[in-house]
Amino acid sequence: MSRIGLLLPAHYAFARGNGIRQEAVLKAQGLTLLGHQVEFLSPWTVPDAGSLDIVHFFYGGLALADIAAVRQIRPKRLVFSTTIDSNQGFVAYRLAAWLGTRVAALHTIPGEFRRQALLADAVVVRSEHERERVVTGLGIPAHKVHLVHLGIDLTGIDAPRAAASSERDGIFHLSTFGQPRKNVLRLIAAVGPTGLRLTIAGSCPPEALPAITAAAKPFPAITIRGFLTGPERDELYYRSRVFALPSLHEGTGLAALEAAARGCQVVITKNGGPPDYFTGLGQLIDPLSVPALRAALVAAHRADAPPIASAIAARFNLQTCATALQAVYQS
Questions:
Q1: Percent of the chain clearing pLDDT 90 (strictly above)
Q2: Which ranges of the chain have pLDDT less than 70?
Q3: Rounded to 5 degrees, what are φ and ψ at 57?
Q4: Cβ count within 10 A of residue 107
């Protein structure tokens, strides 16, 4: 078994619930299940040279601009997990990458991604969408880029509640919902006139909250909540009939996977990584169309659809996805 060090940008030490940090934690859990020794690397502890088989770093970009320094501890392999949620066109993405690597005074995020991807022995992506961004947008050789789906933690799931549908009602949205990318104003516009119950929860900066609150005010069935504890979040997963994530674009939709594993029907954006995870298991929608979003939500709420929890659990459990990542490490 291998000794693996995982590395995040330092600012994620202060980012509770951040999706990139959650991805790293989930990968650590899966690798541990396979018997590997996993360490979270910190600048306060310097590993002995040659003591790590793998150093796997997440996110990249300007926050890890000096990642080449990892070579000083002589890991056998350096692996990079990209986080490219953007639907930016390939030409613009490739131009930004080219400028960032050819013009010394100009630092661009795609330019740093390209440097780091070329430096790494392998690049891990979460979806075909992300693979295209890395290969076509950044110009990274296809043989270096490996698709490994994100696995989710299934421990503690109440299987009978996940399978039950008769007591479920309403729509649940969980995200950093103050971000324009999360598209919450269109979600409110889509759900409000239907009278269906909608609960919006997560984190929201104070400056974004008034506009969202004002949009929801005419609709008494819409509730806006803040940060949820794990039990509070799970209770809403089990009680809700539909989980909605109509973002302008998403990397994977981790919260939607968690909701689906607990029995929710899923309505999610077609932009980004979700088609890899929800084709045949949820409704993929155009996030810019309020009528299309409303129709999908109403249909999902009314449908006597078969539970998708078992299919999600079979495809995206920690051990299955960690086995795919292990193969990348060993290739």
A1: 78
A2: 16-17, 86-93, 95-106
A3: -110, 150
A4: 13
